[in-house]
Structure formats: structure tokens, C-alpha cells
UniProtKB/TrEMBL annotation:
GO molecular function: NAD binding; NADP binding; oxidoreductase activity, acting on the CH-OH group of donors, NAD or NADP as acceptor
The organism's place on the tree of life at top rank: Bacteria
Region described as Disordered: spans on this chain: 1-20
Keyword NAD on entry: yes
Domain named 6-phosphogluconate dehydrogenase NADP-binding: residues: 46-203
Active-site residues, Swiss-Prot/TrEMBL: 212
Pfam family, one: NAD_binding_11
InterPro entries tied to this protein: 6-PGluconate_DH-like_C_sf (IPR008927), 6PGD_dom2 (IPR013328), 6PGDH_NADP-bd (IPR006115), HIBADH-like_NADP-bd (IPR029154), HIBADH-related (IPR015815), HIBADH-related_NP60_sf (IPR051265), NAD(P)-bd_dom_sf (IPR036291)
3-hydroxyisobutyrate dehydrogenase-like NAD-binding domain span: 206-323
Protein name: NAD(P)-dependent oxidoreductase
Keywords, ordered alphabetically: NAD, Oxidoreductase
Transmembrane segments: none
SUPFAM superfamilies, per database record: 6-phosphogluconate dehydrogenase C-terminal domain-like, NAD(P)-binding Rossmann-fold domains
Annotated organism of origin: Candidatus Pantoea soli
């Protein structure tokens, strides 16, 4: 979102502005300062529940952009570094949401999100916005919407899962998939603009959690296919570099595949997205699919469950390659 200029401001011509080291503050500088003050006071107060890989990045970007941010994480230590940047770290989710205009929930799964929000719902500010940004699937999303409608009908629920992983989140380059009452979502949009590169609105609340499963089923298929193709290439005596050189520059050279090939080549599976959470998403998609046949996703979920059982769950999902190779 482009920052508007100071309201009613006329730029002072360059020849009337002070040069480097000039002592006189121009009209522009004074009103720019005043404008910044107004802008900051108009920013919503944000609470972030869940300071894992993604929630931590969201909170850090909001702090960088001058928002007042309150946070809570089950493991308090994960949020402590952000206190130096101005985060107010609460001991409970209820404590974190008090006074917040926008509450972000970025927790592992549906059960955790529902339990946390049940505990915090009475403490939500009147008329606050709740942006649920984790990948929690269709059933938990629909249940949350109904629960909130019953307990706190004044609160605006925005279903807002994200596309993009840890590094894009750290660089405010995620895409927010939003659904819900956009006409009332100005505060949420300010927050989304600070943590991402764009927001795609998809309709009624719940639509974006459905689209998120579509996106992740594509990502999961891509990852499994890449891991298997790499194993086949190796069996024929090719390296990952050979494989990428053939793909590079053509329509098959998906940037995501390059990132994952680099992980495979370096043997570094530091999680951008935990294999465990990717498996959760595969199961959420299968659960929500109804009569739609997804045989490849079913097989992948079985293989990834075996990989998780073998101890790969806390690594990046690219570790399925290492599981296939062992
Ligand atoms: N990483 C990605 O690429 C990515 C991209 C898009 C969406 N997502 C989704 O975003 C969500 C968060 O992902 P993440 O990568 O940030 O995961 P993460 O780093 O594992 O963080 C998970 C968060 O959930 C909390 N949590 C887990 N179990 C809990 C429990 N029983 N009670 C209270 N808190 C609990 C964790 O607290 P502790 O620190 O105490 O464990 C942490 O704050 C997931 O739904 C994931 O699928 C992830």
C-alpha cells in the first residue's frame, strides 16, 4: 500500500529546504513529523498469538513499521528477543488481546487455535478484528466462525491464511488470502499491508482457508515430485545441478523448486516449513475433499506419515528427499 502524503501538505520547493547540517526546520519537516505522529496514532494496536516461525516474523515486521504490538507464546522465551524491539509480551493469550484492535492468531493447528481463542474471547476489545492466519483447515475454521459469532458477535472474523514460508514472512513478502467482511476490515488491511506483499480477497469468511488447502496440495505434490525426480536423477548419475540446468530458463523452472533443490544439494533441512505441518495440511485437504478423488495426495500423506514417524517431522518438508534416500 502506498503511504499517502501528509494531508493537505504542499511540498516546500527544494531551494527553500535546508541543506545537510542546516539548522532551520522547513515547513515540510515540521508537518512531516506531525503527520508521522498522526499516522502512528491511527495505526491499530495488534496482538499476535503464537510467536513461532511465522508469528515471530509478523510481530517483528509490525514493530519495524511502528505498530504497537502485544504478543503471547506458550514458550515465552521465543518472544523475548522482540521485547527489545518494543513488543509487550503477555503471560496469557487473554492478557495479550486486551486493548488490541486487531488480533492475529498464528498457531500450529485448529485445536490449539480454538482452545487459545476460547480462553481469550472474553478479553477481546469491543468491536475488535480477529485475523486467523494459521493453516487450520475447513472444519476448525467453520467451528471458530460459529463459536465467535455466538460468544462475541461484535468481533469481526477475518479468515486470513497466508501463502509464503518463513523467509518471505521475515521479508514481509507473503500473500494474505483473506475472506470475510472486507467493508469492515480497514484495520486488518493496514496490518496485512505491513506484513505482506499483498492481500487477495476471496469472498465469505472461510473461503480462504479452503483456497489455502488447494495451494498447499499443489505445493505438497510439487515437493514429493521434486524429491522423487532428484532421486531418479541421482540413480542415473546426475547431480542436482545437472537437473536444475536442464530446467532453468524454461517453464518447469519453478522458483520454489530451486529453493528446495538447494536445500537438498546442501543437505540443510533447517525448517522453513516443518514436514509435520505440511503433513497436517495434506490431511486437512483430504478430510475436506469429500467425494473429490485425490489419490496422489493420499499416497503422499502415507509416505510423509512414515517420514514423520521416522523422525523427520521437525525438519523442512524437503527432508522427504532424505527420508527416501536413507
Ligand atoms: N512455516 C510456513 O512455511 C508456513 C506457511 C504458511 C502457513 N503456515 C501455518 O502457520 C501456522 C504456524 O506455522 P509456523 O511455521 O509458525 O509453526 P511453528 O514455528 O511450529 O509455530 C507454531 C506455534 O504454535 C504454538 N503451539 C503449538 N502447539 C501449541 C499448544 N498446544 N498450545 C499453545 N501453543 C502451541 C507454538 O508455540 P511454542 O513455541 O510454545 O511451541 C508456536 O507459537 C501453522 O498452521 C502452519 O501450518 C506455516
Amino acid at each position: 500500500m502506498t503511504e499517502p502524503g501528509p494531508p493537505g501538505e504542499k511540498r516546500v520547493p527544494a531551494h527553500r529546504r535546508p541543506g545537510r547540517g542546516g539548522k532551520i526546520l522547513s515547513v515540510w519537516h515540521i508537518s512531516q513529523k506531525a503527520y508521522e505522529g498522526v499516522r502512528m496514532s491511527q495505526q491499530p494496536v495488534v496482538a499476535v498469538l503464537g510467536l513461532g516461525a511465522m508469528g515471530h516474523a509478523f510481530a517483528a515486521n509490525l514493530l519495524k513499521k511502528g505498530f504497537t504490538v502485544r504478543g503471547w507464546n506458550r514458550t515465552r522465551a521465543k518472544g523475548e528477543d522482540l521485547c527489545r524491539a518494543g513488543l509487550t509480551l503477555a503471560d496469557s493469550a487473554a492478557g495479550a488481546v486486551e486493548g488490541a484492535d486487531v488480533v492475529i492468531a498464528m498457531l500450529a493447528d485448529g485445536d490449539t487455535t480454538r482452545q487459545t481463542l476460547q480462553a481469550a474471547s472474553d478479553a477481546l476489545k469491543q468491536g475488535a478484528t480477529l485475523a486467523q492466519m494459521g493453516t487450520i483447515g475447513v472444519d476448525a475454521t467453520d467451528a471458530l466462525i460459529a463459536e465467535l459469532q455466538q460468544r462475541r458477535p461484535d468481533v469481526l472474523y477475518i479468515d486470513a491464511p497466508v501463502s509464503g514460508t518463513k523467509a518471505p514472512a521475515e521479508n514481509a513478502q507473503i500473500l494474505v488470502l483473506a475472506s470475510g467482511d472486507r467493508d469492515r476490515a480497514q484495520a486488518a488491511e493496514q496490518v496485512f499491508a505491513a506484513i505482506g506483499k499483498g492481500t487477495q480477497w476471496l469472498g465469505e469468511a472461510g473461503a480462504s482457508s479452503r483456497m489455502k488447502l488447494v495451494v498447499n496440495s499443489w505445493l505438497i505434490g510439487l515437493m514429493q515430485s521434486l524429491a522423487e525426480s532428484t532421486r531418479l536423477a541421482e540413480a542415473f548419475g546426475f547431480s542436482t545441478a545437472d537437473l536444475w540446468q536442464v530446467l532453468d530458463g524454461g517453464p518447469l523452472a519453478v522458483p520454489y523448486a530451486k529453493m528446495k533443490l538447494d536445500m537438498i544439494a546442501g543437505g540443510d533441512f533447517t525448517p522453513q516449513m516443518h514436514l509435520l505441518w505440511a503433513l497436517k495440511d495434506a490431511k486437512l485437504a483430504l478430510d475436506a475433499a469429500g467425494d473429490t478423488r485425490l489419490p496422489a495426495l493420499e499416497n503422499i500423506a502415507e509416505v510423509w506419515q512414515q517420514a514423520v514417524d521416522a523422525g523427520y517431522g521437525e525438519q523442512d518438508l524437503a527432508a522427504v528427499y532424505a527420508y527416501l534416500k536413507r
